[in-house]
């Protein structure tokens, strides 16, 4: 019916407040960008762009996830 619902802001952070290091265990596995999967602990809002791209691809693909990995290693194999 054309509704968009946003959810899961459990890892939200205030924008513009400098932080030295984040956790690499963020974002649902299927939507994590490669740099975070490789263990990056310093990242920007670009991880959200990757996640949004994965979600749009999933929507365009009839609800089938683009990279439905079962582990970090499997996820990286599916991406590359």
From TrEMBL:
InterPro entries attached to this UniProt entry: CDK, Kinase-like_dom_sf, Prot_kinase_dom
Pfam families on file: Pkinase (PF00069)
Domain of life of the native organism: Eukaryota
GO cellular component: cytoplasm; nucleus
PROSITE patterns in UniProt: PROTEIN_KINASE_DOM (PS50011)
Domain Protein kinase, chain residue ranges per copy: 1-80
GO molecular function, one term: cyclin-dependent protein serine/threonine kinase activity
Keywords: ATP-binding, Kinase, Nucleotide-binding, Serine/threonine-protein kinase, Transferase
Gene Ontology biological process terms from the UniProt entry: axonogenesis; neuron apoptotic process; synaptic vesicle transport
Keyword Kinase: yes
Name this polypeptide is given: Cell division protein kinase 5
Source organism of this protein record: Adineta steineri
């Amino acid at each position: 019916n054309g509704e968009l619902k946003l959810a899961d802001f459990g890892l939200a952070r205030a924008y513009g407040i400098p932080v030295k290091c984040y956790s690499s265990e963020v974002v649902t596995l299927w939507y994590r960008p490669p740099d975070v999967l490789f263990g990056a602990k310093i990242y920007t809002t670009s991880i959200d762009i990757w996640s949004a791209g994965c979600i749009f691809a999933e929507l365009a693909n009839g609800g089938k996830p683009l990279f439905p990995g079962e582990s970090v290693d499997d996820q990286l194999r599916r991406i590359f």
